[in-house]
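Renewal narrative, Specific Aim 1. Our central claim is that a sequence can be written position by position from structural information alone. The example that follows is taken directly from our test logs and has not been curated for this report. It begins with the structure tokens describing the chain, in the order in which they were read.
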């Protein structure tokens, strides 16, 4: 039996496909290559190019392979873009998931682990955030992810499918050997954008707002290494395979860093002065997001290996230095 990784050519999906193979699993990857890269898919994985909104394509994958469980990353994930193009997010994240679940039910595939996000919480009332805290997204990306969670709940009740939603905080870093890493076009995430400065691809980094209610006025986030996220997906799938019930887990390090602190760490890793300029706030950004991941540690036995931002940025820097243009060389 194989694990189907949807969106396995993307950033977190490709690291998870690799981790599954290293754990001795049989892996099938499907991706529409809209934002993912064929070169990011491990050679040992069987690859299907297509879109989860295409029912015939999804049916074909389930009919061609013996799938024991699905890990679903195939979604759009940019806060800023989701505020400008909300219907794109409803179409891919919600309509895509609806088509996928339809096909899973029809083919008797009843286990799914999928990417949710800290953006489901919105402006949280307390830190660190627990899974039971209120969910009031402040952006359309978070709203579609929360709706995906709810869709899974009702499909589970009606059809017996079981799911785990993993609410990531800020995914970052790269495979430590530098072979795969983060590559978006255009790039919007903080750490890869900062590293474009010492890589001579950008003059300076913009800080989106310094008037937030935080100690230095810039937004605080919980940065979690992509390889630790990958391990959490394998643990979550095994939890479902052992009969675990529907569940939602936060995944973060439980430590917050401000935008200014992240820039400072990147200066220390790269030895480059990395000039920064204050700009206007970006729409939809909550001031602070820090995870409590105690539940994932207790229930799944998750043990993040990278709890230090300096080391995390070092892995990202190794990837970006060796692949300044991502996979498109
Ligand atoms: N950010 C910034 N400058 C940039 C990109 C991002 O100041 O060029 C800030 C952004 O406003 C947020 C934090 O960095 O507070 C992390 O943003 P990112 O897009 O990496 O992740 P998100 O928190 O949106 O998932």
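The sequence written for that structure reads:
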């Amino acid at each position: 039996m194989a694990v189907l990784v949807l969106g396995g050519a993307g950033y977190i999906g490709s690291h998870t496909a690799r981790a599954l193979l290293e754990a001795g699993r049989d892996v099938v990857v499907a991706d529409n290559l809209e934002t993912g890269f064929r070169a990011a898919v491990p050679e040992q994985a069987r690859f299907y190019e297509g879109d989860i909104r295409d029912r015939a394509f999804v049916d074909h994958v389930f009919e061609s392979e013996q799938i024991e469980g699905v890990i679903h990353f195939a979604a759009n994930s940019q806060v800023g873009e989701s505020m400008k193009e909300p219907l794109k997010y409803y179409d891919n994240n919600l309509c895509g998931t609806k088509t996928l679940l339809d096909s899973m039910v029809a083919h008797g595939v009843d286990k799914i682990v999928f990417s949710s996000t800290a953006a489901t919480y919105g402006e949280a009332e307390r830190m660190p955030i627990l899974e039971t805290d209120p969910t009031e997204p402040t952006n359309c990306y978070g709203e579609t992810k929360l709706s995906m969670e709810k869709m899974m709940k009702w499909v589970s009740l009606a059809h017996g499918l079981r799911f785990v939603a993993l609410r990531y905080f800020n995914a970052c870093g790269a495979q430590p050997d530098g072979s795969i890493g983060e590559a978006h076009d255009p790039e919007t995430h903080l750490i890869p954008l900062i590293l474009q400065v010492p890589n001579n691809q950008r003059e300076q980094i913009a800080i989106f707002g310094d008037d937030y209610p935080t100690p230095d006025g810039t937004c605080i986030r919980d940065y979690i290494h992509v390889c630790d996220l990958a391990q959490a997906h394998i643990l979550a799938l095994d939890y479902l395979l052992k009969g675990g019930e529907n569940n939602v887990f936060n995944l973060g390090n439980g430590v917050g860093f401000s935008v200014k602190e992240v820039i400072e760490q990147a200066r220390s890793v790269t030895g480059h002065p990395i000039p920064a300029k204050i700009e206007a706030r970006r729409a939809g950004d909550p001031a602070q997001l820090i995870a409590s991941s105690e539940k994932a540690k207790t229930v799944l036995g998750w043990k993040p290996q990278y709890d230090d931002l300096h080391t995390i940025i070092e892995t990202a820097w190794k990837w970006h230095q060796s692949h300044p243009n991502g996979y498109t060389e």
